[in-house]
Automatic annotation (TrEMBL):
Its EC number(s): 4.2.3.4
Organism from which the protein derives: Microbacter margulisiae
Keyword line: Amino-acid biosynthesis, Aromatic amino acid biosynthesis, Cobalt, Cytoplasm, Lyase, Metal-binding, NAD, Nucleotide-binding, Zinc
PANTHER family referenced in this protein's UniProt entry, alphabetically: 3-DEHYDROQUINATE SYNTHASE, 3-DEHYDROQUINATE SYNTHASE, CHLOROPLASTIC
UniProt xrefs under CDD domains: DHQS
GO biological process: amino acid biosynthetic process; aromatic amino acid family biosynthetic process; chorismate biosynthetic process
The protein's annotated pathway: Metabolic intermediate biosynthesis; chorismate biosynthesis; chorismate from D-erythrose 4-phosphate and phosphoenolpyruvate: step 2/7
The protein's role, per its UniProt record: Catalyzes the conversion of 3-deoxy-D-arabino-heptulosonate 7-phosphate (DAHP) to dehydroquinate (DHQ).
Location relative to the cell: Cytoplasm
NCBIfam families associated with the record: aroB (TIGR01357)
Gene Ontology molecular functions: 3-dehydroquinate synthase activity; metal ion binding; nucleotide binding
Protein name: 3-dehydroquinate synthase
Amino acid sequence: MSKSVTITYDFEQELKNQIAVLAPDFIFLLVDSNTHKLCLSKMESEYPVIEIPAGDDHKTIDNLASVWQFLSTHKATRHSLLINIGGGMVTDLGGFAASTFKRGIRYINVPTTLLGAVDAAVGGKTGINFNGLKNEVGVIHSSEAVILYPQFFRTLNHENLMSGWAEMIKHALLSSTKAWEEILSFQWTNVDYDALGKLVEQSIAVKEAIVEQDPTEKSIRKALNLGHTFGHAFESFSYSTARPLLHGYAVAFGLICELYLSHIKVGLPEIILHQAVQHIKQHYGAFSFEKTDYPVLLELMTHDKKNDASGINFTLLNEPGEIRINQHATREEIYDAFDFFLHIF
Ligand SMILES: NC(=O)c1ccc[n+]([C@@H]2O[C@H](COP(=O)([O-])OP(=O)(O)OC[C@H]3O[C@@H](n4cnc5c(N)ncnc54)[C@H](O)[C@@H]3O)[C@@H](O)[C@H]2O)c1
Ligand SMILES: O=C(O)C(=O)C[C@@H](O)[C@H](O)[C@H](O)COP(=O)(O)O
Ligand SMILES: [Zn+2]
């Protein structure tokens, strides 16, 4: 049973209950152009709606400012409430807007993507992309509640389901061999929705347990960044190409490189690396770059938020569930990981 996430089949009633507890003076809803049409239209509400454009390239300072602007001109106070209805883009940007407006108002997250449900809406990391870098500016400030309404996921396309699945793969690898095997054996061709629902709950529980131990990422929360040191570099890099990557796809490709480093540096068994490569190739297709791109990708990795003066910081694994934070790699080892990645595709 989740501690901070309420799973509901009566969304409007649950929202009313949460609002009654918080007793805000004014309520504002934040959506993107897709969740406005696909999710907000399914509920009755007379609250003012703030709409931002959909897509991670809109997790920007300009859209953040447009949310502040709306709250300010509509006389939001420190006792007001912002309800973010959307995927990770909306909950990250909306969470940051709420955490900074008048030095912090309360907010509720209503994740409408699988990725949002298992990861982005939970744990209090908020922020925007800046200077070509993922989540370069933000704060850690928890929502008052997370309301998960599975009906919203019905309109998600396959790519966005797979994007969320990548964070679930990450959580399983951080958890145990059993959880990893459950992920590998899940069939996406003939989906068992009850089984998927259980995996979603387990995935949220993995994240919550880690955040509870270390909410501000001083130590073990760095585990939740598995796959992201390479993954964020791939994601930022992909924005300058014709095919921008969804966050989860970038994480899946980043996992391949970081499991490779885990194998060569801390002894992750080759079989786990092999299983991950097969699973990710099957579900995420290919991603390519040139050897001449290695320096650009490495430069992007030097901006990772886990880094300190000792260099680029990785989270690696000895085994599923056996986490090694604060690992470092030489430039040659990082380039070997890129070589391995290009070789398998
Ligand atoms: N704060 C955290 O801990 C955390 C964790 C993981 C990821 N993130 C961030 O989350 C973002 C990725 O989240 P995401 O994958 O949810 O992306 P997203 O919010 O951009 O949503 C993906 C797409 O799905 C659309 N969409 C949303 N709900 C829908 C629905 N119910 N039906 C149909 N379409 C819908 C969106 O409009 C968008 O086009 C990235 O910015 C990433 O950095 C944050
Ligand atoms: O909750 C966390 O901690 C995570 O790292 C979860 C990640 O999946 C997520 O993408 C997060 O936004 C990455 O954070 P960042 O600090 O590397 O920007
Ligand atoms: Zn992520």
